[in-house]
Design goal:
The protein is α/β, with parallel strands linked by helices. It is 24% helix and 25% strand. The strands form six sheets. Strands 3-4-7-8-9-10-11-12 form an eight-stranded parallel β-barrel, surrounded by five helices. Strands 2-15-19-20-26-22-23 form a seven-stranded antiparallel beta sheet, covered by helices on one side. The structure holds alpha-L-arabinofuranose (AHR).
């Protein structure tokens, strides 16, 4: 058996744990909205048609922000279709997903759902088929208290108080040729800068996210960020990053090392943003909103939109079933996001329900948890205080895609107030168990609270509606703490959370 070690010291702080790291995403896509969060005939549905079993699991997942309404969908969306009396709303074709949107849910319903689910909204405007004026109209409708045509329309529609949405995305993946209204970097940069400037004239407190690349393998990656930030730097707070490159395609070793790819992506975007900052002689940093990330099996049949004359409402789309290895990778991607808490100030797991999602529903029926639910929920619940920079020593594993990577990946958070230290660790070896030794210099009097591990001899095990609990994270009986040392055994293909606290607690 091989061993790895980490050294944790409360003096080595990367930055605070940010609640917005634990965001998710609700798009008008497939069954995410209709029969996902909204299913008026479901026994748990409330007066707005929202399923409370889904709301309960959203809360249990520990989601902070929810990005809405897309995604590719937003680039053809007319927000006005989704407000006012439901019986008068038009059904529209959604070109992004070759579907029909009945517009039963729009911005006011989403805001009511967000309140019920206890999440902060993150609204995206359409910069594909639309522009500055329509973005301003939506902002006026949402955030102006009253006394104008659009704010009074919101009040007439039942929302007396302004929604006061702070975070706004300036379009979605505008670098992607698949995007409706796709633009060159120069075209988008001008539009984004002018939209941001005008939106800030209406509401100076907005936090604005400009589109970065929809993946690090895009041919324009790097140049896109440079052009867009050069134009829009002073008007925005964040640049987005999206990544879905990670899937099991027969090369388990590389798949387990996916977080290395996320690390490199974040570092590259940060370097580009800092390059623009230096050229501008600006003192303010642009942060990253990693507002779409997940494992996604894009080549599976369920990711193929309908075609021809078939324009269904809420088709089964992107309903990936996740196994144990997928959950280990998701846990590791969260470790990467936390490790970059100095740079990544917001992130959204894509998506929340049914569509590449931790929560699944049967129309009118059961709700259940996918494997990826667990590392997300546990990290969100227990990562608190500051993220610590760890020294990691680990055996290496050779991967076809990323070269040699450490078998162990880990991050720690420490909450000085409560005395809670949380260590999140993955064993990325497909074959070998790893003994993890933790050097706790700088801490004294810590005791073990719990150690739980997600793993299974069959890493291809997936949850179903009939059984979503056989492979949940389990107590790891090997953990021990002696003086300033802790240790735990990590099975191959596993994710572990070790919780310690000051002895007085
Ligand atoms: O999350 C699914 C899709 O992936 C989103 O609509 C789009 O933004 C991305 O390409």
């Amino acid at each position: 058996m091989s061993s790895a070690s980490i050294t944790a010291d409360p003096a080595f702080v990367v930055g605070p744990v940010r609640r917005r790291t634990f965001g998710a995403f609700v798009e008008h896509l497939g069954r995410c909205v209709y029969t996902g969060i909204h299913d008026p005939d479901h026994p748990s549905a409330d007066e707005d048609g929202f399923r409370h079993d889904v709301i309960d699991l959203t809360r249990e997942l520990g989601v902070s922000t929810v990005r809405y309404p897309g995604g590719n969908f937003v680039s053809g969306y007319r927000w006005e279709d989704g407000v006012g009396p439901v019986s008068e709303r038009p059904a529209r074709v959604d070109l992004a997903w070759h579907s029909t949107d009945p517009n039963l849910v729009g911005v006011d319903e989403f805001m009511r759902w967000a309140t019920k689910a206890g999440v902060e909204p993150m609204m995206a405007v359409n910069l594909g088929t639309r522009g500055v004026q329509e973005a301003l109209d939506l902002l006026e409708y949402c955030n102006v208290p009253g006394g104008t045509e659009l704010s009074d329309r919101r009040r007439a529609n039942g929302a007396e108080e302004p929604h006061r949405i702070r975070m706004w995305c300036l379009g979605n993946e505008m670098d992607g040729p698949w995007q409706i209204g796709h633009k060159t970097a120069e075209e988008y940069a001008r539009l984004a800068a002018e939209t941001a400037r005008a939106m800030r004239m209406m509401d100076p407190d907005l936090e604005l996210v400009v589109c970065g690349s929809s993946g690090s393998k895009m041919p324009t990656f790097g140049a896109w960020e440079q052009t867009v930030l050069t134009e829009a730097y002073e008007h925005v707070d964040y640049i987005s990053a999206h990544a879905y490159y990670w899937e099991q395609d027969g090369d388990l070793g590389s798949f387990l090392a996916s977080a290395v790819d996320m690390d490199r992506f974040i570092d590259a975007v940060s370097a580009t943003a800092d390059g623009v900052r230096a050229a501008r002689k600006d003192s303010r940093s642009i942060h990253i909103s990693f507002d779409e990330w997940n494992v996604w099996y894009q080549n599976r049949a369920e990711s193929r939109p309908p075609s021809g004359d078939d324009w269904p409402v809420a088709p089964v789309l992107l309903e990936d079933r996740y196994n144990v290895a997928d959950a280990v990778v998701v846990g590791n991607l969260l470790i990467s996001l936390l490790r970059h808490t100095d740079r990544v100030h917001a992130a959204s797991l894509a998506q929340l329900v049914n569509v590449i999602a931790p929560i699944m529903t049967e129309p009118g029926g059961r709700v259940w948890k996918q494997t990826i639910f667990h590392p997300f929920a546990l990290t969100s619940q227990f990562a608190k205080g500051d993220v610590l920079r760890l020294a990691i020593e680990s055996p290496m594993v050779d991967t076809a895609r990323f070269g040699e990577v450490t078998a162990l990946d880990a991050v720690a958070t420490y909450d000085d107030e409560s005395g809670d230290l949380v260590i999140l660790a993955t064993n990325r070896s497909a074959t070998d168990e790893l003994t993890l030794n933790v050097d706790l210099r700088g801490f004294s009097g810590l005791r073990l609270v719990e150690a739980i591990t997600l793993s299974n001899p069959d890493h291809t095990w997936s949850a179903t509606a009939d059984d979503d609990s056989s492979v949940a994270p389990r107590d790891n009986g090997t953990a021990r703490v002696v003086d300033q040392h802790a240790g735990v055994e990590l099975p191959p293909v596993s994710w572990t959370m070790l919780r310690l606290t000051r002895a007085t607690h």
